[in-house]
């Protein structure tokens, strides 16, 4: 009976101890509840950091960060400062190349006087047209026929002409540069440039005129040059030519007597 009662009390103690042990575990459960918000906060912070890192990488890959740095920087990047002269030089080279190509395609002509031509008899003052030398001259996209420059492309042209006259007399051999016993004390040396219009039935209009009345000495070397130029609009098929008075006194040197035109624009 006593043994049974002792076992019963042992059972009671065991039950109490179990309950006591259960109560001792309660603080552990409360500690678990206190650490749960801290763990949740840590996870949130880690998630935000991961999102921020992802956004930063994405912005860097898209170039946004580089753009912001360039716009907010107080000074230009070194790469830009170093490459600007190179870019400017390349642009200038391309521009000069385009201008050179355009210049090479412009119609133009420059013709020296043709030597060994009998323009007029000595002492004949009337104006006669000059024949020009195609072989030693230059023509590009312009035609030439019997002393006339022919326009192939319509446009605005600059036309120029220069003629040189000379006279001198040799002593002792009876020869003189302009013929025998010519009176050159009062000689008119005039240069005319004519424009022949294709739309007016080849009517020639006087475009330019210049010259002088020279009082030369028969016993000395005399020389006079007349030159002129102007711009005007020319149509396809128009012609240009030069006449001079007292053409028998023309200097046959192509450096001094020449005729030409160049197109300046449309």
TrEMBL record:
Pfam families cross-referenced by the UniProt entry: TNF
Classification of source organism: Eukaryota, Metazoa, Chordata, Craniata, Vertebrata
Kindly give the SMART domains that the UniProt entry links to this protein: TNF
**THD domain segment(s):** 107-264
Question: What highest taxon heads this organism's lineage?
Answer: Eukaryota
* The protein, known as: TNF superfamily member 11
Tell me which Gene3D superfamilies the record gives.
Answer: 2.60.120.40
- Its GO biological process terms? immune response; response to mechanical stimulus
């Amino acid at each position: 009976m006593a043994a049974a009662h002792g076992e019963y009390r042992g059972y009671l103690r065991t039950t109490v101890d179990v309950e006591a042990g259960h109560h001792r575990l309660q603080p552990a459960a409360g500690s678990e509840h206190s650490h749960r918000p801290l763990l949740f906060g840590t996870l949130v912070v880690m998630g935000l950091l991961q999102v921020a890192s992802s956004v930063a990488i994405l912005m860097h890959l898209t170039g946004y960060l580089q753009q912001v740095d360039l716009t907010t920087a107080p000074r230009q990047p070194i790469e830009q400062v170093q490459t600007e002269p190179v870019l400017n030089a390349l642009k200038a080279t391309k521009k000069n190349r385009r201008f050179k190509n355009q210049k090479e395609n412009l119609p133009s002509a420059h013709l020296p006087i043709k030597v060994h031509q009998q323009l007029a008899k000595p002492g004949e003052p009337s104006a006669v047209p000059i024949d020009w030398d195609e072989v030693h001259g230059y023509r590009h996209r312009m035609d030439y026929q019997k002393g006339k420059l022919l326009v192939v492309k319509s446009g605005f042209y600059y036309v120029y002409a220069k003629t040189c006259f000379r006279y001198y007399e040799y002593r002792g051999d009876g020869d003189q540069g302009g013929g025998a016993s010519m009176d050159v004390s009062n000689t008119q040396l005039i240069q005319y440039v004519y424009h022949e219009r294709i739309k007016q039935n080849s009517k020639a209009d006087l475009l330019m005129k210049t010259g002088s009345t020279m009082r030369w000495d028969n016993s000395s070397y005399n020389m006079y040059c007349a030159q002129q130029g102007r711009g005007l609009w020319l149509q396809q098929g128009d012609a240009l030519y030069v006449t001079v008075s007292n053409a028998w006194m023309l200097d046959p040197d192509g450096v001094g007597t020449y005729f030409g035109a160049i197109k300046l624009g449309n």
